[in-house]
């Protein structure tokens, strides 16, 4: 379908699986991809920027959520960069999750990564030290605001939500929302119109 979005649960676009290799933060990964998933042909610039930023942070999370994992690049990076952490990779797109599972196997990282089908936090009960996401901005402001609010509720004290957003796709309003919910929001990086935003949970209630 021409207008089908990558956050569709069951993509109806033609099944044409393929593979490619890509370096991320010094790690080489093999990726399987397909139609109907986000940035199917390569790792998108926003995700690359998010990964390169997190790669430089002095943080040591034990539990990480890759919210909206797609075919798994952020989760794969996290498993390599934080080898002592346990990662949960979630997505609503069933085809993307099938690819992510295949990619975790192909890169021998299944011991570090669990997978769950979930629309935002609908099926997620755990709390985390770090939530990483390239959020589905096109899903609309209500969805993105819920993502921020629910991330707060599912973070441990001193845990971080770190995400990427383009300025032209609503970075100023998203930053304000993160400040409203968390009481803080830091711009970690600006790169060609992409912003990496980070908020820390400093109290147990909004």
Order of helices and strands: EEHEHEHEEHEHEE
How many DSSP-defined strands?
Answer: 9
Shape: globular
- What's the name of the CATH homologous superfamily? Vaccinia Virus protein VP39
Output the CATH topology: Rossmann fold
Low-confidence stretches: none
Q: Would you give an account of this structure?
A:
The radius of gyration is 16 Å and the shape is globular. The protein has helices at 45-54, 73-81, 94-106, 141-153, 171-182, and strands spanning 18-24, 27-33, 63-67, 86-91, 113-117, 128-133, 155-166, 186-191, 194-200. Helix 4 (141-153) runs parallel beside helix 5. The protein is 28% helix and 30% strand. It is of the alpha/beta class. The strands form two sheets. The chain has a seven-stranded mixed beta sheet with strand order 5-4-3-6-7-9-8, sandwiched between helices. The protein has a single domain (54-200), classed as Rossmann fold, CATH 3.40.50. The model has no long low-confidence stretch (mean pLDDT 92). InterPro entries: RsmC/RlmG, SAM-dependent_MTases_sf, Small_mtfrase_dom.
């Amino acid at each position: 379908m021409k207008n089908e979005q990558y956050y569709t649960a069951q993509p109806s676009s033609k099944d044409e699986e393929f593979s490619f290799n890509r370096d991320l933060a010094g790690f080489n990964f093999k990726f399987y991809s397909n139609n109907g998933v986000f940035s199917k042909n390569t790792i998108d610039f926003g995700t690359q920027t998010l990964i390169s930023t997190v790669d430089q942070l002095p943080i040591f999370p034990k539990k990480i959520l890759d919210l909206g994992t797609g075919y798994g690049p952020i989760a794969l990076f996290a498993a390599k960069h934080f080898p002592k952490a346990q990662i949960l990779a979630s997505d609503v797109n069933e085809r993307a999750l099938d690819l992510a599972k295949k990619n975790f196997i192909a890169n021998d990282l299944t011991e570090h990564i669990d997978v769950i089908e979930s629309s935002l936090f609908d099926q997620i009960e755990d709390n985390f030290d770090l939530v990483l996401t390239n959020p589905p901005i096109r899903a609309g402001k209500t969805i993105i605001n819920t993502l921020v609010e629910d991330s707060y509720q599912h973070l441990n004290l001193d845990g971080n939500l770190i995400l990427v957003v383009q300025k032209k796709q609503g970075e100023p309003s998203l930053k304000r929302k993160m400040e409203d919910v968390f009481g803080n929001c830091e711009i970690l990086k600006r790169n060609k119109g992409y912003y990496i935003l980070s908020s820390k949970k400093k109290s147990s209630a909004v």
